[in-house]
Design brief:
Blueprint lengths: L1 E5 L5 H11 L3 E6 L11 E4 L20 E4 L5 H11 L5 E7 L32 H15 L4 E6 L2 E2 L7 H11 L2 E5 L5 E2 L2 E2 H13 L4 E5 L6 E2 H12 L4 E5 L1 H6 L25 H5 L7 H13 L11 E2 L2 E2 L7 H12 L14
Parallel strand pairs: 1-2, 1-4, 2-3, 4-5, 5-6, 6-11, 7-10, 8-13
Antiparallel strand pairs: 9-12, 14-15
Length: 353
């Protein structure tokens, strides 16, 4: 298969290249050429998705591919232009969307039929405040260009080696540091995320089969709680971490930013994002590796990348993804405030010992 990846050098795209090469496919990347490629046999096509600047999409002229995976689409104008450009040059188009497209994020078990977010002004391209709604419009733009030939992957939190956002890595490093750890919400609160390598392998397999449609894509395979994750991190690092569980209302009142300051924590009104239905993807072959493997491999990668900073953070549309976590001094202040509050009684669990 001749596979084109729009993006391909940072995180999911990088693992898509690895998965495709491992299965014997020919791979080309379309991007701005700002990062060196570690694969000598991968072709790089230089351009910019915003057709108003740079080389635009000209590097795609006259080229044909069996399938394309769009990892870098955040606004419908650009996704629509890319999809239209490739409509007669590819058989299959995979668009990497997000479970953030759903309107009712408090609902548990959202499946692919869930109502989607909308925008009063669909021309607004400010990504961060409109991320989910824009992704939903991007899906529509791709489908309009290639009706019946699109795979829309509504991914959950993607974790693993080469994740520069630090969202999963925060917990690995914080628990390994030991001591008193602020643990957000209830210990038994369900959470979801997927190892990037599992997602990439499944996407390549779906492209091979030319499977179309919409899929929620996250994991792990078995139900996981926040306590289960933190205990697994402690077991892997053999630290003396002690978890203090702080309730949602306290965190909101003290300005703790969900997913940014406290990765994998969301207030109840949007916590459905961490409990979506993935039965459809599982039935079509999505498999997740053991949590211990993801923890070990991500920890090993982080050990060689201790200098990650906001300057190196990946961009999403016109925004820069913030690095996750709360500074140690703020964590300590929050723990002290919680200890003196009248709500600092939460059910004791194994993770507090």
């Amino acid at each position: 298969m001749k596979l084109l990846i729009l993006g391909g050098t940072i995180f999911l795209g990088r693992h898509l290249v690895e998965a495709a090469l491992a299965r014997g496919h020919e791979v080309a990347l379309f991007n701005r050429g700002t990062r060196p490629l570690p694969w000598p046999d991968v072709e790089q096509l230089i351009g910019d998705r915003d057709v108003d600047i740079g080389a635009g999409l000209d590097a795609l002229d006259g080229r044909r591919f069996d399938a394309v995976v769009d990892t870098s689409g955040y606004v419908p104008r650009l996704v629509g232009a890319s999809a239209a450009k490739l409509a007669d040059a590819v058989e299959h188009y995979t668009f990497i969307s997000s479970i953030s497209v759903y309107r009712d994020l408090a609902a548990k078990g959202i499946d692919e039929s869930g109502a989607l977010k909308t925008m009063d002004d669909p021309t607004d391209e400010d990504v961060m405040p409109n991320y989910g709604a824009l992704k939903a419009l991007c899906e529509r733009a791709a489908e309009a260009a290639l009706p019946g030939r699109c795979l829309h992957v509504r991914a959950g939190l993607i974790v693993g080696p080469f994740d520069e956002t630090g969202r999963f890595g925060y917990w690995l490093q914080r628990v390994a540091r030991g001591g008193d750890v602020l643990a957000p919400g209830r210990p038994d609160r369900p959470i979801q995320f997927i190892d990037v390598r599992d997602l990439a392998a499944w996407i390549v397999a779906m492209a091979e089969a030319r499977r179309a449609g919409t899929y929620n894509a996250t994991g792990p395979a078995a139900r996981l709680t926040m306590e289960g994750l933190l205990m697994a991190c402690r077991s892997a690092s053999r630290s003396d971490a002690r978890f203090t569980w702080v309730d949602d209302a306290f965190l909101v009142e003290h300005g703790v930013v969900p997913f940014t300051n406290m990765p994998l924590w969301l207030p109840p009104e949007v916590n459905g994002l961490l409990e979506v239905d993935v039965a459809k993807a599982t039935a079509d072959g999505l498999r997740c590796r053991p949590l211990a493997t993801t923890i070990a491999d991500t920890t090993a990668w982080l050990a060689g990348n201790t200098a990650l900073s906001n300057a190196a953070a990946p961009t999403f549309g016109n925004a820069i993804a913030p690095h996750a976590g709360v500074p140690a001094e703020r964590e300590r202040a929050l723990l002290d405030a919680w200890a003196t509050s009248d709500r600092s009684v939460i059910p004791v669990s194994a993770g507090t010992q």
